[in-house]
């Protein structure tokens, strides 16, 4: 089974992890400068670091599509910059998973193959995907929907140790991120994490820096740029979240059900 995942952030990486673990081939496509926050669990980080490892699985950045078969043979995940294309002569996907979380309608022309799976808002079954996977936290998280569409994004982060919206770090101004703070660092409330256009990024409470975009990324004021975990366990930043794994489970179920339907 050839899987192509558009978007290698933490949710797309959770999907990639599970599908790779069951023995399928996985390729990830990204934009030139991915806006990844949780870099320690995002395969898209390979674009910045050349290669990255998430829970024992290695992803490697490649520039040439012709390198895909070699990495697949080595059981690594190729990551390449290709924001518009999702099919290559060197790699014809059986399944396309759109994990970019753009939260707007994305055009796909549906046929029996490749199967198209959309994560979250912006996808409607039969219109631009074969299956939608619910991404909102709650009772329906990770459910494969065979009709209709995903719920509207609430914009409310999940609650961790009674912290919700305050966990999120947002850009205090428009500009380029500058920070020397390493992910996994324990911070105290008010500690300087970094800056944007000389405006400070401050820790909202005592916790562990779980996510932060790469230095040099341009962002607009108010956009989510990172998050702080109130649990004082830095090891957690190296493990895929329960949300990502729940969504990945829905994707795996959807693929198996769909393959049985078209046999």
Verbal overview:
- It is a single chain.
- The protein is an alpha/beta fold and 263 residues long.
- The chain is 16% helix and 27% strand.
- A hairpin with a 2-residue loop joins strand 3 and strand 4.
- The longest helix has 21 residues.
- The protein starts with a strand and ends with a helix.
- 38% of the residues are buried.
- The mean pLDDT is 93.
The biggest sheet, with number of strands, parallel, antiparallel or mixed sense and barrel status, is:
9 strands, mixed
The CATH topology of the largest domain comes to Rossmann fold
CATH domain class name of the largest domain: Alpha Beta
SSE order, as H and E? Answer: EHEHEEHEEEEEEEEEEEEEH
- Terminal Cα separation, in Å? 14 Å
Which CATH architecture of the largest domain would you pick? 3-Layer(aba) Sandwich
Shape verdict? globular
Beta-strand percentage range: 25-35%
Total number of helical segments? 4
Q: How many runs of DSSP E, i.e. beta strands?
A: 17
Strand order of the largest sheet: 3-4-5-2-1-6-7-8-9
Total separate domains: 2
Chain oligomer state: single chain
Average pLDDT metric: 93
Secondary structure elements and pairings:
Elements: E1 2-6, H1 10-21, E2 25-30, H2 46-49, E3 51-54, E4 57-61, H3 68-73, E5 77-81, E6 95-98, E7 115-119, E8 131-133, E9 144-145, E10 168-170, E11 175-178, E12 186-187, E13 192-196, E14 199-202, E15 207-212, E16 218-219, E17 224-229, H4 242-262
Parallel strand pairs: 1-2, 1-6, 2-5, 4-5, 6-7, 7-8
Antiparallel strand pairs: 3-4, 8-9, 10-17, 11-13, 11-16, 12-15, 13-14, 15-17
């Amino acid at each position: 089974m050839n899987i192509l995942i558009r978007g290698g952030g933490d949710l797309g990486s959770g999907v990639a992890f599970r599908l790779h673990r069951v023995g399928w081939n996985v390729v990830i496509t990204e934009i030139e400068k991915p806006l990844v926050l949780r870099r320690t669990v995002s395969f898209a980080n390979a674009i910045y670091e050349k290669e990255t490892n998430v829970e024992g699985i290695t992803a490697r950045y490649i520039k040439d599509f012709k390198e895909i078969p070699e990495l697949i043979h080595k059981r690594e995940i190729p990551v390449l910059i290709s924001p518009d294309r999702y099919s290559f002569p060197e790699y014809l996907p059986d399944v396309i998973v759109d994990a970019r979380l753009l939260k707007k309608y994305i055009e796909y022309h549906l046929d029996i193959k490749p199967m198209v799976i959309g994560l979250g808002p912006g996808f409607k079954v039969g219109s631009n995907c074969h299956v939608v996977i619910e991404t909102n936290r709650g009772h329906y998280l990770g459910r494969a929907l065979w009709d209709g569409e995903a719920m509207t994004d609430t914009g409310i982060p999940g609650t961790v140790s009674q912290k919700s919206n305050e966990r999120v770090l947002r850009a205090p101004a428009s500009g380029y991120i500058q920070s020397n703070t390493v992910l996994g660092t324990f911070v105290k409330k008010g500690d300087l994490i970094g800056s944007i256009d000389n405006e400070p990024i401050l820790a909202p409470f005592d916790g562990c820096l779980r996510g932060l975009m790469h230095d040099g990324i341009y962002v607009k004021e108010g956009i989510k740029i990172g998050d702080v975990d109130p649990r004082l366990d830095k090891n957690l930043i190296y493990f895929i979240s329960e949300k990502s794994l729940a969504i990945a489970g829905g994707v795996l179920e959807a693929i198996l059900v769909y393959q049985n339907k078209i046999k």
